[in-house]
Design goal:
Layout (H helix, E strand, L loop, with lengths): L3 H13 L2 H8 L3 H15 L4 E3 L4 E3 L1 H26 L6 E7 L1 H18 L3 E7 L13 E5 L8 E6 L3 E5 L1 H7 L5 H6 L3 E2 L5 E5 L5 E5 L4 E2 L3 H9 L5 E4 L4 H6 L3 E2 L12 E5 L6 H18 L1
Parallel strand pairs: 3-4, 3-5, 8-11
Antiparallel strand pairs: 1-2, 5-14, 6-14, 7-12, 7-13, 9-10
Helix pairs in contact: 1-2, 1-3, 1-4, 2-3, 5-10
Length: 295
């Protein structure tokens, strides 16, 4: 059976005249867009588009279906407004993906106040250190850390942040404080699987590649922090993720300024789906406030 998103995709493909253009506007892959159209056609047992190597054009049946569907979608949006979606009350369900440290250290402390303000809005969090494809994974928004790839997603810069090399004082007492890249190469490391090579810049501003020893790999950023606190190895972390540990001295920065680039801004990312705009906007405002108060 087809879904509401399949119908929305069909309308956009019809108006844009192609899969690629519609996929870019939706913020999803061309393969996902094509799959939705194929699924819709199979469910309807109709051929909605004429296909050639350059573009798509509506069949006669497709044109009739488009006219009816656009009228239905317009009525649906009107029904949402009349049911309260256009009032000051924020209703619905919001799916959010973020790293665990972002959720625990910045979002959760503000959730009680946010729920008091918006009691009719429910929230569902998926925690992961990977960039989840929002539309394909059914997510409404994401809080992402680091440089963003080019995409059709809408990104709102929340705050600045940097990655740093750090370690526990107990480890540095045992191995000595690294004073150069060579010292770091010989040090024990704890890394995420995709985080074993770093671009660094020495005092001569020459960029080189630091390849760490694969002593211990973990798959979760919180495990990375805990391993560092236990003195297991040197790690690379977002400064914001270990702000409290740095302030207490349970972790200390090693060779400040060595990583290049080190910038890892925090972003609030949404799809271009206007139907989610109000609930994502108010949640995004809360996220900006939460990170702003932490500085």
């Amino acid at each position: 059976m087809y879904s509401l998103s399949d119908l929305e995709t069909f309308i956009l493909v019809a108006h844009r005249g192609g899969i690629t253009a519609a996929a870019h506007q939706l913020g999803i892959s061309a393969a996902t867009t094509s799959y939705r159209i194929t699924k819709l056609e199979k469910s309807l047992k109709l051929m909605l588009f004429h296909r050639n190597s350059r573009a798509l054009s509506l069949t006669g049946e497709g044109a009739i279906f488009l006219e009816k569907v656009e009228r239905i979608m317009s009525d649906l949006r009107l029904a949402e407004i009349e049911a309260g979606a256009g009032s000051s009350v924020i209703r619905g369900h919001l799916r959010v993906t973020a790293s665990t440290w972002v959720l625990s250290r910045f979002v959760l402390p503000h959730l009680q106040s946010f729920q008091t303000q918006h009691p009719d809005l429910t929230l569902e969090f998926t925690t992961t250190d990977h960039f989840v494809p929002l539309v394909e994974d059914g997510q409404d928004c994401a809080i992402r850390v680091g440089r963003l790839p080019d995409s059709a997603l809408i990104a709102r810069r929340v705050c600045n942040n940097h990655r740093i090399i750090c370690a526990a004082p107990s480890l540095l007492e045992r191995i000595g404080t690294p004073l150069s890249c060579k010292d770091l190469e010989c040090a024990p490391w704890v890394c995420l699987p995709w985080q074993t090579r770093f671009s660094v810049q020495d005092k001569s501003t020459k960029s080189t590649l630091l390849v760490t020893k694969r002593n211990i790999l973990v798959t979760h950023s919180d495990a990375l922090t805990e391993a560092a606190l236990q003195g297991v190895g040197v790690v690379v972390k977002s400064r914001l993720a270990i702000k409290h540990e740095l302030e207490k001295g349970s972790l200390v920065e090693v060779l400040p300024g060595l990583l290049n680039p080190s910038d890892a801004p925090v972003w609030f990312v949404t799809s271009s789906d206007a139907r989610n705009s109000r609930k994502t906007t108010v949640f995004g405002d809360m996220i900006c406030q939460a990170f702003g108060e932490s500085r």
